[in-house]
Amino acid sequence: MVNRKELDPEKSPGARFGQRLRELRDERGWTQDELAERMGCSGTHISAVETGRRPPTPRFAASADRVFGTGDQFERRGRAVRHTAILEGFPEFVAHEVRAAEIMLFELGIVPGLLQTPEYAAAITTGAVRRGAITEQQAEERLSLLATRQASLERTPPPLVYAVLDESCIRRPVGGPGVMAAQLDRLVEFAELPSTVLQVAPYDLGERRAFDLPVTLVALPDRSLMSYAESAQQGRLERDMRFIQPLLTAYHQLQAESMSQSASVAMINEVRKGTP
User: Fold this and answer.
1) Residues 226 and 106 grouped into a single domain
2) Same domain, yes or no, for 70 and 149?
3) What is the pLDDT of residue 231?
4) Closest Cα to residue 256, out of 214, 210, 206?
5) What is the pLDDT of residues 96-115, one digit of tens each?
6) How far is residue 193's CA from residue 198's CA, in Å, rounded to a whole number?
7) Same domain, 17 and 140
């Protein structure tokens, strides 16, 4: 079949759900549209669930069990998908991020994942486990995905990465003095790479700071743009230029208002002096 995407069931619970859905559909010789008609949804929805771009809702899983006569198999698999610590919308974004030509980041409070040391990332997830926000298994899932994302930066040619960090990112202690010192060192090393630009948006930027939430913009090899932003419960991937263009303009304004890279590195080094 032309453009049939290969599925990796080991990637995530969502991927396992999607592969099983495709297996049973193929056994019956149904197209995605034919299955969609039986389940009361669209072929596009079936495709998104099969490829892991959209998680199955309880209603979708129950409908799949009804159509395939699988008891509660899909309902149980659906609960495992929804138990993941990865926000809805994020896996789809990562699939584009790992092949992006340019990545533009703005972050508040913590260092962006792509720039985190393993120890800093582990401290963040350990804190979430201690609060009961995620399980240890979910923490491992997050760290595994982060390692995959960071590895993608080492491809040839590497993507251009522009990172604007709110000052809170470098001043908020995470993991203890040793972990924080190593993380600040990592930021300085990142700024020295030929394919990166690192800037700090200082506190005194005040109301001139363009964003109040973290934002990521990516440019793909074909120069198309998309944005990704998160709320507490879900991530949103946006491709419509009517919504992306204002974000891109605001990002460039933020870059212009933020400290230069040399001044930003100087601030990071000054903060670093207060750590062992």
Assistant:
1) yes
2) no
3) 64
4) 210
5) 888 999 999 999 999 999 99
6) 10
7) no
